[in-house]
Write a structure and sequence with these properties.
The complex is a heterodimer. Chain A has no helices and eleven strands. By secondary structure, chain A is mostly beta strands. In chain B, the strands form two sheets. In chain B, strands 2, 4, 5, 9, 10 and 11 form a six-stranded mixed sheet that branches. A five-stranded antiparallel sheet of chain B has the order 1-3-8-7-6, with no helix packed on it. Classes of the chains: A mainly beta, B mainly beta. Chains A and B meet through strand 4, strand 5, strand 9 and strand 10 of A and strand 4, strand 5 and strand 10 of B.
Chain lengths: 114, 112
């Protein structure tokens, strides 16, 4: 079956430092990968959508300079949170799809910023 | 862009009753409507979805209804159980555009 893994599951970083998280799709080809953030007590905000052979599209309030994303092949994507501050804490979800099929979500990376 | 509104922030029912969660969307081009469940401290778990070529889909105790004219869709859970307690998120997406927009979530509490 289709699975999405995310690493690490939990991480803590000091304010002002950076943190990289990874997403791996197994059992299907991740032609598109979306990164979401769920801040405490809130819903899931789309950060950016990466589609193979297209430019990565960032949503308003999110920039490549702050959240650089790599999507080098059909099974892997990574995102870095640069200069993390308190407002960046939350659950970061990776959602991957093959074509127009269902989007599968990973378990998330929970980021705590001290 | 697409906006998805989830009308009930909290819903409390007794075990065995039915629960209904309602959502509306704004983008007439949206054609894929998934529902997800998030248990406390955990990630999202896919529950059920519906595409715009049908107006009803059922899977065991879950039924999703879609009213394209009103741009409204709903999740119906029958014979609720305490383990159904979680936050439920509705979402909407265009098929060509891949962007999935989430509602704000409904906390469902099923008491024994």
């Amino acid at each position: 079956g289709a699975l999405v893994y995310q690493y690490p599951r939990r991480t803590i970083c000091k304010s002002g430092t950076s943190m990289r998280m990874e997403c791996q799709a197994v059992g299907f080809q991740a032609t598109s990968v979306a990164w979401y953030r769920q801040s405490p007590q809130k819903t899931f905000e789309l950060i950016a959508l990466s589609t193979v052979n297209s430019a990565i599209k960032y949503e308003q309030n999110f920039t490549q300079e702050k959240f650089p994303i790599s999507h080098p092949n059909l099974s892997f994507s990574s995102m870095t949170v640069l200069n993390a501050y308190l407002e960046d804490r939350g659950l970061y979800l990776c959602g991957a799809r093959e074509g127009e099929d269902e989007q599968y979500f990973g378990p998330g990376t929970r980021l705590t910023v001290l | 862009g697409e906006k998805v509104e989830q009308h009930e922030s909290t819903l409390s029912v007794r075990e065995g009753d039915s629960a209904v969660i309602n959502c509306t969307y704004t983008d007439t081009a949206s054609s894929y409507f998934p529902w997800y469940k998030q248990e406390a401290g955990k990630s999202l778990h896919f529950v059920i979805d519906i595409r715009s070529n049908v107006d009803r889909k059922q899977s065991q105790r879950l039924t999703v209804l879609l009213d394209k004219k009103a741009k409204r869709f709903s999740l119906h859970i029958t014979a609720t159980q305490p383990e159904d307690s979680a936050i439920y998120f509705c979402a909407a997406s265009r098929t060509g555009g891949y962007k999935v927009v989430f509602g704000s979530g409904t906390r469902l509490l099923v008491s024994p």
